[in-house]
Write a structure and sequence with these properties.
The complex is a heterodimer. By secondary structure, chain A is α+β, with helices and mostly antiparallel strands. Chain A folds into 2 domains: about 110 residues, Beta-grasp domain (Ubiquitin-like (UB roll)); about 130 residues, Fumarate Reductase Iron-sulfur Protein, Chain B, domain 2, CATH 1.10.1060. In chain A, about 35% of the residues lie in helices and about 10% in strands. The longest helix of chain A is centred in the C-terminal third of the chain and has 16 residues. Chain A starts with a strand and ends with a helix. The relative contact order of chain A is 0.14. Chain B is mainly alpha-helical. Chain B has one domain. In chain B, about 80% of the residues lie in helices and about 0% in strands. Chain B has 8 helices and no strands. Chain A: One of its GO terms (biological process) is tricarboxylic acid cycle. Chain A: It comes from Aureibaculum marinum.
């Protein structure tokens, strides 16, 4: 495959970026999108040009590091996958592909296609945990009976890898799908109920402070989420938040 | 109030409550207006009751006004905040790949409805206020039907109403189920709410369009 790539280049967080056009040739349709990016970077290095910075780690769709906005969609045109799992067979020979970083005020660009997603970490630190003493006297998890249905829903929510595709694809740059998944995975379990009130209040407060937009229920996040996190989690978070506000 | 509404979820909740209130109001409005199609007397009686009952005039009407104004103001506030949450726009953003046109353009259908509402107030509400409270003319319980018919005589107004109600239908197609999601209602009944929302979004605007066309062709 021969492709034209229009890629966002930005020297650093303070510089102004722009779209730059590149050509790549003889790309195998069996390559992953990131492997195609590797080929381009090898070309750039061989020409003594600065390679394109982009996030990646496990390349197995687990870590949530890859974060490209490809042809107008988070993680590209395929569904239920991250960019590392996107294959070049999803594109046509001769196609022009636009590649941009996640766009949100809360996700500032560090360089080229790499964005700072530490806002998600600060939200997690605000309440995305349970306080358990793990110093040798931990209770057996199976000692607390949990309905299978609740355990399944909690596990579904816990599959969120925090990649930020929900923010990137939302027209409002809302982080509610991410935050609701992290709230839900604990809210559904008895271990999480103990700190549920403070958790949802603190995580939503932090989310608002980070400058994410308001959810208007377009559902774009659910469609683009590589892990299929459901909008039901946002409804659950809304209920949790209102109940917590009344309790406080 | 401002403290409570400083949270994104509280704003969503307040927006949804005002939307549900307006959704309920539209049913009442249509139920009263549709009587004009089959009974002049019943329409006059209901309009006279609505126009003279102190509970309706001095309790429900102000609540409705506050609800309408709140919904519009909060809609603009949310839109401004949401726009500012993405300071650098995408060169290529394919919203149609993952969301409906209605859901992405609520502000524009809302602005069109606001423009229509201003005309609607000038057409009906302002003359009514003038009749009753400024000029303080003697009450005539049989005037309402003729006033309604008179309004739908010019074709331009009927066309305007039809366009406005099509846009209202589009606004409701997303807004109805969105309001339920915002108040945390997403469960086994959600598919029923979505279906109900679709029927509501078609039937309520269609009812108002039918009334406008009926009076245009039957005056």
């Amino acid at each position: 495959m021969n492709l034209t790539l229009k890629i966002w280049r930005q020297k650093d967080s303070k510089s102004k970026g722009q779209m730059v056009e590149y050509k790549v040739t003889d790309i195998s349709e069996h390559m992953s999108f990131l492997e195609m990016m590797d080929v381009l970077n090898e070309q750039l290095v061989s020409k003594n040009e600065e390679p394109i910075a982009f996030d990646h780690d496990c390349r197995e769709g687990i870590c949530g590091m890859c974060s490209l906005h490809i042809n107008g969609e988070a993680h590209g045109p395929d569904r239920g996958i991250t960019t590392c799992q996107l294959h070049m067979r999803m594109f046509k020979d001769g196609e022009t592909i636009t590649i941009e970083p996640w766009r949100a005020k809360a996700f500032p660009v560090i360089k080229d296609l790499v964005v700072d997603r530490s806002a998600f970490e600060r939200i997690q630190q605000a309440g995305g945990y349970i306080s358990v003493n793990t110093s040798g006297n931990t209770q057996d998890a199976n000692a607390i009976p949990i309905p299978k249905h609740d355990a399944d829903l909690s596990m579904d929510a816990a599959t969120c890898i925090g990649c930020g595709a929900c923010v990137a694809s939302c027209k409002n740059s809302s982080a509610m799908l991410f935050v609701s998944a992290k709230v839900s995975q604990f809210a559904l379990l008895p271990q999480g109920r103990v700190e549920a009130t403070e958790r949802v209040l603190n995580m939503v407060r932090q989310m608002d402070e980070e400058g994410f937009g308001n959810c208007t229920n377009t559902g774009a996040c659910e469609v683009e989420c590589p892990k299929g996190i459901s909008l039901e989690n946002i409804a659950r978070m809304n209920r949790e938040y209102l109940a917590a506000s009344l309790k406080r | 109030m401002s403290g409570f509404l400083s949270s994104s979820i509280a704003r969503k909740f307040a927006m949804a409550l005002s939307a549900l209130f307006l959704i309920f109001f539209l049913i009442i409005h249509l139920a009263v207006n549709i009587t004009s199609v089959f009974s002049e007397d019943l329409f006059n009686q209901l309009s006279h009751f609505m126009g003279t009952n102190p509970m309706v005039q001095f309790a429900l009407q102000p609540v409705l006004l506050v609800g309408v104004i709140f919904h519009f103001v909060m809609g603009f506030v949310l839109e401004i905040r949401n726009k500012s949450a993405r300071d650098v726009k995408y060169v290529n953003y394919k919203g149609s790949a993952n969301s409906s046109w209605m859901s992405r353009n609520m502000i524009y259908s809302g602005l069109a409805i606001l423009a229509f509402l201003l005309i609607h107030f000038i057409d009906f509400w302002a003359p009514e206020m003038n009749y009753k409270y400024i000029e303080a003319l003697p009450e005539n319980p049989t005037r309402y039907y003729h006033e309604l018919q008179e309004k739908f005589m010019p074709l331009w107004r009927v066309v305007l109403y039809v366009i406005a109600f099509v846009l209202l239908g589009l606004h409701l197609l997303h807004g109805f189920q969105s309001a339920f999601q915002s108040i945390g209602f997403n469960n086994k009944y959600t598919s029923f709410v979505k279906a109900l929302g679709k029927w509501y979004s078609i039937l309520i605007p269609a009812g108002f369009i039918f009334i406008a066309l009926f009076h245009y062709f039957n005056h």
